[in-house]
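Researcher: Here's a chain I'd like modeled. Treat it as a single chain, no partners, no ligands.
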Amino acid sequence: MRHDARKLLEDARGACAEVEQFVVGHTQDSFVKEIAVQRSVERSLEIIGEALRRLRDLDDDMGDRIPNLSRIIGLRNILAHGYDVLDYEIIWQIATNEVPDLRLSLQQLIVSGR
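Model: Modeled as a single isolated chain. Structure tokens:
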């Protein structure tokens, strides 16, 4: 695996871990009410999407191994450009249900080195 690809995977994995840490101790209701936590999660989701977009541009084969890559990149674009259409209940679901699985997938790619 190229050094650049590994760095992008590690950046995305680290941002996944941040999302998981930010939501600890919160419920969906408390998340929807706490702007600082929302913004923290949003920023980490943007980093995930941007790192994986760059990875896809760098290595198509590696990008093909990441589940839901186009949705992840699309979410990054919505977060960056569509702040006025965000649904924090959906962001909560992504943060609590999808990000942990993504982190594990990224970890497997890093460990396998392929």
